Structure formats: structure tokens, C-alpha cells
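Side project, low priority. Logging it here so it doesn't get lost.
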Amino acid sequence: MNRTEFMRQLESLLQNISATEREEALQYYNEYFNDAGPENEQNVIEALGNPAKVAENIKKDIFGNGYGENIYQKINADNRAVITYPADSGAESGAGEAGFGQENEAQAAGAVSSRKKEGMSTGMIVLIVILCILASPVILGVASAGIGVAAGLIAAWLGLIVGFGATAVALILILIALVVAGIISLFTHPFVGMGLIGAGLICGGVGLLFLMLTVAMAGIATPAICCWIGGLFQKRGKAEA
């Protein structure tokens, strides 16, 4: 078996893990072969063992598979151990390489997972901090604008209610005043008195209209709007849950 066949089998055996983890593992072992050099290709293969065992170790290190405490030594990718191959490949040196190769295999599998976990956690924290710093002026501006618009709408609505109510009260008071003045004028100037009474009744009718609008806005429309807004927030909360 040569390097190409070893890596091809390893890639085939790692199809059931994510593409990112598979690429990192393959890249790691390719660099492993590169560090050893072409002249030590067969020694690397013998030291690592068969591709099935290497794939099994990688999967155990990534998924855990219920083995309890992870048995693989975690090392940094920059500290990847390099096998030293003596010129004489006797039985004793071969046994030493095999034993060291098993340890190195466990270290390699652990390094792939450790590098991934450390990179993700540090990168995500830095990215979140940068995004929060950059987006804070925009978020504050949008929040302030939203609060301002909401406060303006509420103030305008309350102003309409108060204005309609005040108009209704004023027109009703005018009704009373004109009717009283008209009744008094009937004894001296009948036509003037009837005109005053008629004008007072018109003002009273308009005042009753404004009074009904005030009651409808304050007692019907306002609770309905509040219920509608509350329903929107409730639906959004259920959707997020």
C-alpha cells in the first residue's frame, strides 16, 4: 500500500463525519506524510497502521461514542510529533517504530479534534465581540428611533382623545349658554331668541358627536389596539419557543 491508496481508503472510511472534520483529518495526515518525506512513506504507513484503525480513532475522538473519558492525548497541531526513522530497519527498531506510531496515531487524531474545537471557540468569541462593537451604534439608533415613533404615536392618540373630549365639553357649555340666552330673548326679541336657541342646539349636536367619538376612542379603540399589540408579541413568543 502506498500513500495514495492509504489516503483514498481513509477518505472513504470518513464519509459519515462532517465535510469540515473530514477535510481537517485528511489535511493533517497529508501533512504528516509530507513531514516524513517520500523516502519514509512506507514507514509512516506501518507506524500508523491500517486506514480502518486510523478512521476509527478519529471518529472516537470526535463523537466519543460512549467510551467515557477521551483516551486520546490532546496536542496542538503545531506540536505534531514526527517519527524519526533510523537507517537500519531491524526487528528491534521496527517494534519501536510500531509502538511509537500507535502513540503518534492517537496524538494525531486528538490534534484534529483539538484544533477544531479551539479554533471554533476562540473565533466565535472574537467574531461576536467585533459584531457587537460594530453594530452597537446602529442598534442604539434603531432602538431610539423605534421608541421615539412609538412615543409619538401614543402622544398623538392621547392628544386626539383629549382634544375631542375638550371640544365636546365646550360645545355642550355653549349649548347651555345659547339656550338660556335665547329663552331670555324670547320675551323682548322673539326672532333673536329662536335663533340663539337653534344655534345652541346645533352646537349641542356637534358636541354630542365629539363626545361619542371620545368615548369610542378611549373605551373601544384603545383597548382593541392594546389587545392587538399584545397578541402580536404573544404569537412571536410562541414562534420563537
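Brief comment: Helices lie at 3-13, 19-36, 41-48, 51-63, 91-185, 190-240.
Revisit when time allows.
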